[in-house]
């Protein structure tokens, strides 16, 4: 087995800043482009087709973790990184899993409550997407492990452009749900090809003969972790799809996506840069936790004002973001707006625990989260419909485990973070209470404008309070 990874950490803060900045830029451009595309598609494609699309996306995000088996994250912890072994697993097991999906698609289609003739074919076509995504993970792992996410920006932008152009063209031609499916496959093919092109000549593919089985055994906890992590995020669509019509699934997922909009813009690019940085900081726990602390404060300083803006402007948001078809989702938007704020330690806690080889503890916390979400989601949605599923999002039963782990290992530093988070949660409230008081009988546009002002003032306050710590941490080592 390759030796555990050992890094020099002097330049890690700057590498982390460059890497997370590049990832966030790519994610921001991608999200803005897809946002504009989906605003148009909401008016071209009915909620029923959106429901099938959301259910399919959730299923394949979970299947992707079954394909990877945790190996991409595990090889980052090894030197030399056995990318050759990773490639063979993605080719061999990825092809086998795609083949299994082709055969079992008719049976899987029966898990979708709405009887539609196209569900099985959608799953079979998405098997190609599953294979392409696995192949792209090899050069992606190479770039991310070296904190060189800037090399990934161009392929990601090309993928975004391909998806948006194909989806819009197909939707205008009346292809319905196939506008999404074909656009996803085409864009993933472009992405994989460009990643491999950019990695040519610079990405070694060392292969450890006879070691793949041991690597898979070692990565199994990571595979379980990512499976549970994606399930915690996307299982709502699978639960609702098993018992409600496709249009209901589409309406709920519209509200859920926008409630978690800020989180999904920021968590994925920051997390993908933080994980290798946490690994590099392994010899310096204080620096490691400081990176975690700064990232947690940064993301919540944006999420809290975003949640308050959405809560105060849910009716207008439903109209602008979805059109007349989604006006009845405003109450779900109000409720779900605060769901991303329930588990602040979990935003990047998983990456930190994995870097510390606390995989089992993170698996246990996620298993509790997913178990609660599924159990309470089934129970509450049966009694109250989709709003019951929304209430289940407020029961992260695994959060105390993460808090206990950090309290034991980083008690003093965790206390400082708790004080910072209390300010992040409470400081914007007077501003938004003033907005509500000043506009509750006025125009929705007035309330929206005042809400944006309150959000900007909140961000300015947070920068004044925490910005210097951020800049101090990321200043060049020579200074």
Describe the structure.
With 479 residues, this protein is mainly α. It has one domain (3-474). The chain has helices spanning 12-44, 47-68, 71-75, 83-109, 119-145, 153-172, 178-199, 212-241, 246-259, 261-280, 285-312, 314-322, 330-336, 346-355, 359-384, 386-392, 399-426, 428-439, 444-474, and strands spanning 3-4, 78-79. Strands 1-2 form a two-stranded antiparallel ribbon. Helix 11 (285-312) packs parallel to helix 18 (428-439). The radius of gyration is 22 Å and the shape is globular. Mean pLDDT is 87; it is low at 1-11.
Average pLDDT number: 87
Q: What best-fitting shape do the alpha-carbon axes yield?
A: globular
Number of domains: 1
Give the biggest beta sheet: 2 strands, antiparallel
Order of helices and strands: EHHHEHHHHHHHHHHHHHHHH
Poorly predicted regions are 1-11
Approximately what portion of the residues adopt beta-strand conformation?
A: under 5%
Please provide the count of β strands.
Answer: 2
Radius of gyration: 22 Å
State the end-to-end CA separation: 39 Å
What's the tally of helices?
Answer: 19
Structural class based on helices, strands and sheet pairing: mainly alpha
Spatial order of the strands forming the largest sheet: 1-2
The helix content is over 70%
List keywords for this structure.
19 helices; two-stranded antiparallel sheet; mainly alpha; 479 residues
Secondary-structure topology with pairs:
Layout: E1 3-4, H1 12-44, H2 47-68, H3 71-75, E2 78-79, H4 83-109, H5 119-145, H6 153-172, H7 178-199, H8 212-241, H9 246-259, H10 261-280, H11 285-312, H12 314-322, H13 330-336, H14 346-355, H15 359-384, H16 386-392, H17 399-426, H18 428-439, H19 444-474
Antiparallel strand pairs: 1-2
Helix pairs in contact: 1-6, 1-10, 2-5, 2-8, 2-9, 4-5, 5-7, 6-7, 8-9, 8-15, 9-13, 10-11, 10-14, 11-14, 11-17, 11-18, 11-19, 12-13, 15-16, 15-17, 18-19
């Amino acid at each position: 087995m390759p030796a555990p990874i050992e890094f020099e950490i002097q330049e890690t803060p700057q590498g982390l800043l460059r890497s997370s900045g590049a990832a966030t830029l790519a994610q921001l451009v991608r999200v803005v482009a897809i946002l504009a595309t989906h605003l148009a598609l909401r008016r071209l494609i009915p909620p029923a087709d959106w429901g099938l699309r959301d259910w399919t996306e959730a299923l394949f995000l979970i299947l992707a973790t079954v394909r990877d088996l945790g190996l991409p994250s595990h090889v980052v912890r090894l030197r030399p990184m056995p990318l050759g072994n990773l490639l063979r697993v993605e080719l061999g097991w990825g092809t086998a899993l795609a083949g299994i999906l082709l055969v079992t698609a008719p049976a899987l289609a029966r898990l979708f409550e709405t009887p539609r003739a196209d569900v099985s074919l959608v799953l079979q076509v998405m098997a190609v997407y599953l294979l392409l995504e696995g192949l792209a993970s090899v050069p992606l792992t190479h770039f991310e492990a070296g904190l060189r996410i800037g090399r990934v920006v161009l392929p990601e932008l090309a993928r975004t452009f391909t998806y948006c152009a194909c989806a819009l063209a197909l939707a205008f031609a009346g292809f319905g749900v196939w506008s999404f499916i074909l656009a996803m496959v085409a864009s993933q093919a472009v992405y994989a090809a460009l990643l491999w092109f950019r990695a040519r000549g610079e990405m070694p593919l060392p292969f450890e003969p006879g070691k793949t089985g041991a690597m898979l055994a070692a990565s199994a906890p990571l595979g379980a972790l990512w499976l549970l992590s994606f399930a915690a995020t996307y299982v709502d669509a699978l639960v609702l799809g098993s018992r409600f019509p496709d249009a209901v699934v589409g309406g709920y997922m519209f509200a859920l996506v926008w409630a978690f909009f800020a989180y999904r813009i920021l968590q994925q690019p920051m997390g993908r840069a933080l994980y290798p940085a946490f690994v590099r900081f392994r010899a310096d726990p204080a620096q490691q936790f400081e990176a975690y602390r700064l990232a947690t404060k940064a993301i919540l300083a944006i999420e809290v004002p975003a949640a308050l803006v959405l809560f105060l402007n849910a009716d207008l948001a439903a109209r602008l973001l979805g059109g007349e078809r989604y006006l009845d989702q405003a109450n779900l938007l109000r409720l779900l707006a605060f769901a991303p704020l329930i588990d602040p330690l979990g935003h990047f806690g998983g990456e930190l625990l994995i870097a510390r080889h606390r995989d089992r503890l993170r698996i246990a916390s996620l298993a509790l989260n997913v178990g609660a979400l599924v159990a309470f989601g089934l129970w509450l949605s049966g009694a109250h419909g989709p709003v019951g599923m929304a209430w289940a999002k407020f029961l992260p039963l695994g959060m105390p485990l993460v808090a206990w782990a950090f309290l034991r290992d980083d008690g003093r530093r965790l206390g400082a973070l708790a004080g910072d988070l209390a300010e992040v949660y409470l400081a914007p409230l007077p501003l938004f209470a003033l907005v509500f008081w000043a506009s509750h009988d006025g125009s929705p546009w007035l309330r929206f404008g005042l809400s944006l002002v309150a959000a900007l003032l909140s961000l300015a306050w947070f920068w004044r309070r925490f910005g210097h710590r951020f800049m101090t941490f990321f200043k060049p080592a020579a200074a």
